[in-house]
Amino acid sequence: MITLKGENIYLRALEPEDLEFVYAVENDESIWNVSNTQTPYSRFLIRQYLENAHQDIYEAKQLRLVICRNDNFSAIGLIDLFDYDPRNNRAGIGILIQDNENRGQGVGSEALQLLINYAFTHLNLHQLYANIDAENEISLKLFTTFGFQLIGTKKQWNLVNAVYKDESLYQLLR
């Protein structure tokens, strides 16, 4: 099991007990534009997903970790490496803090720092990239704080509430 510990939070592998948390996150329509989700997920599908969460990043091409608080061990978010490409030593990275009361407290920064360090030191990645809604100022600030640089804008890339929105591509090279 992967556990990455920080000062206030830790990242851990998905567990079967995360069913309701993942179900709530995946079915929260207010954040579907962040994850490009278009339809609800059933508990059955999420249970199947969790049963296969034991696959390592080389099999699944993805690593999804739960963000938990050190003090009460509660799950408050998810952070992912996705589209893992071992040949070119790169992966996409995404983060989601579920509830507003857990945002703006440095949790996302700490989680992102832990996963960046893991990706560069343990997975020996050369680069990470993030696809961010060009209007998502909080995410833009978070990723640029860690040195991610804007390398392009995909114009009118995502249709959100009948409006096409630009998506920015950010990259961090080791």
TrEMBL record:
Keywords assigned: Acyltransferase, Transferase
One of the Pfam families matching this protein, by short name: Acetyltransf_3
InterPro entries: Acyl_CoA_acyltransferase, GNAT_dom
PROSITE patterns linked to this entry: GNAT (PS51186)
E.C. numbers: 2.3.1.57
A GO molecular-function descriptor: diamine N-acetyltransferase activity
Coiled coil: none
Sequence ranges assigned to domain N-acetyltransferase in this UniProt record: 9-170
Protein name: Diamine N-acetyltransferase
